[in-house]
Amino acid sequence: MNSARLITASLDDPFSLSRLSADMMAKSAAMNPARRQQWRAGRALLAEALSVFCGGETLPELQFSAQGKPFFADVSLPHFSLSHSKNHLQLLLCQAGEAGGDVEQMRPRRRYHDVAREAFSDTEFLWLMEQAEPQMAFWQLWCLREAWLKQQGGSVWQMDRIRLDPAFRSFTSEPATDTQLWYLADGSEMRALALPAGVSELEEYAFNAVSGDFIPLTSRPWSQFSSC
To answer: Is 222 exposed, middle or buried (0-12, 13-18, 19+ CB in 10 A)?
Structure first.
C-alpha cells in the first residue's frame, strides 16, 4: 500500500469512548484532567479510524517498544502516530511501515533564537535567520525533527540525530534512514510527517464531531524533504 492517511480533529470533540476497553479507561482515570483528555481523545480517535478503515469493534491492546513507542501486536494493522498541540489533534496511519507525525501551534515563543541555536545546525540556524518569517521557519524545522524522531521512537533530547538542509529540502540522519519528510503550514498550525520511502500518496480526512464520520479533504500543497 503506497498511501498514508492523516486525520485531523480537536481535543474537545465529543469522542465516543465505547471502543476503549475497561482496562484502558481505568488506566486513564488516575491521570490529571488535561492528560486524561489528551490520552482518551487520541485513543478514541484511533479506535474510530481503525473501525472505519480496518474493521473491528474495539481498540486492540497496545504494546510498546523499548523506546516507549506504541504499536499493535497484530501486524496486519497499520503503524500509527498521534500528536497534539493546544486543541489540535492529528492521527497518522501508515500500512507501509513506521511513520511519525507532529502538529505544532505556531505560537510566539520567547527566546526561540536561543532554542534554535542550541537545537539546530549552523546551516539551519543561518537559513532560519534569513527568512521573512523566522518564527514560522523555526516551527517548520522543529516540527520536521519531531516527526522524524517519533518515527524512530526517539525523544526531543535526540534532536541532533537529524540535520536538515532547508534550502535544498534534504536531510541527513544518524542512523541513516530511507525516509521522506513532508511539511505543511496549515493556518496557525505547522504539520510534519515522516513516512517510509515507498509512500507516494497522502489521504487526508477531518473528523466530524457531529456525525462521527471522517470527511475527505482535498489535496493540499505539502512540501517534501528527501534523505541524502
So the answer is: middle
The enclosing domain of 30 has a CATH number of: 3.90.470.20
Cell numbers 474537545: residue = 12
Which pLDDT value is given to residue 1?
59
Show the beta-strand stretches assigned E in the chain: 3-10, 62-64, 70-72, 79-85, 88-94, 100-105, 162-165, 170-173, 179-186, 189-196, 201-207, 214-216, 223-227
The three cell numbers of residue 126 are 543561518
Which domain covers residue 191, as residue numbers? 3-227
The count of domains in the chain is: 1
Residues 90-111 pLDDT 10s: 999 999 999 999 999 999 888 9
Strands (E), 35-107: 62-64, 70-72, 79-85, 88-94, 100-105
Q: Which residue has the higher pLDDT, 67 or 166?
A: 166
Locate 70 and state its grid cell: 506504541
